[in-house]
Amino acid sequence: MLMAIIKAGLSLCGLTAALLGAARLLGEVLPAGAQIAYTVRAESTSIYLMDVEHLLTTEITRISRPNPDAPPLPALSPVWSPDGESIAFLSIEEQDSAMAIYVMNQLGAAPHLVAMNPYDAAPLVWSPDGTRIAFTMSENGTPNIYSANVDGGDLTQLTNGGDWGPAWSPDGGAARMAFLSYRDGNGEVYVLRIDDSASDQFPGENALRLTYDDATDASPVWSPDGTRLAFVSVRDGNQEIYLVDGPPRRAAEAARGSIPRPPLNLSQHPGNDWWPVWSPDGTRIAFETWRGDSRDIYVIDVRGGIARRLTTSLYEDMQPAWSPDGRYIAYVSWQTGDPEIYIVDVTAALSGSAIPRRLTNNPGEDLFPTWRP
User: What is the CATH number for 140?
Assistant: First the structure.
């Protein structure tokens, strides 16, 4: 084979690059010990767990049924607990097609019901200490933010302004939650103080409004240190990724006698950008975008600069998810005709020297990858 390649005119450098690419394709990029949960939509909708290193999969929602002969519990949108020991997910009750929230405390164990009738399919968010789950639920047609204990008790309404899309701050001691609200006439990002003992309160305000614009500001996501939020807005005419200071930074500015800084347009591109995801170290954000003829994933430094293209297929690449060490991104790609899960080494991909590795290969739809912490 080597002689055939040389006779075909491939240079030594080209041969080296080809062999290195083949090595990556055959498994070099696969991280040891990593696991990814994801949704599979086929004859039924289930959650699978993949051992990334060995490409071994287990249908964890099927084996969670007490009766192994019973049909699997429809399950989607898995979300890991902070300690990586439990998974929250959504299910559709077969009798009345109602949405329900379940938690599986141990992988393979029977899940238990946490709450019924969440308003929309996502997101579910864990509290930083792993004791509660927040979600959007509608009563009398108005959505609001609720939380409940992971055992299903103490259902608590947290907002009453027509709110949804909770995002719990990773700073557990401050107990803050960001969300989208139309309480002032258009969609804005607010932060609710769940713990009134937080040292940087804003007296007289139960929910702090962070954004002010006639356009809708949505999908808030906290930075890993809890000091800033990324969000999506069309305030400049198209969907862009913005950054805004959270309560800690705003309080520091107020203490210096300064007014809060306006949101920063981070992505700054005529194409539409959305689905921001912070890197674990808080230095970069991955996001989805339409820039040209395909849907791709880009990465940008939060200090600003030019966004760099991570995926280069001619098909739709979406739903980026950082690995806990920040080295890899898992994502969904349609390049084989149906959505499959891929991973790629971020640094190598941005330098053009990595080949994305396809993890799944089945006729169903594989979606919403999430790494085990």
Answer: 2.120.10.30
Boundaries of domain holding 25: 1-30
Q: Please give the Cα distance from 254 to 249 (Å, whole number).
A: 9
N residues, the chain: 373
Kindly provide the b/e burial profile for residues 319-346, where b requires at least 16 CB atoms within 10 angstroms of the residue's own CB: bbbbbeebbbbbbbbbbeeebbbbbbbb
pTM as predicted:
0.86
Q: Which helix (H) or strand (E) holds 76?
A: strand 76-80
The two three-digit tokens of residue 325, written as one number: 């060490």
Q: Give the list of residues 6+ apart from residue 189 with CB closer than 8 angstroms, or none.
A: 178, 179, 180, 181, 209, 210, 211, 217, 218, 220, 229, 231, 244
Instruction: Looking at the structure, tell me whether residues 362 and 341 fall in a common domain.
Output: yes
Dihedral sign, CA of 303, 307, 311, 315? Answer: positive
- Residues 84-134 pLDDT 10s: 999 999 987 655 567 889 999 888 788 888 988 777 655 899 999 999 999
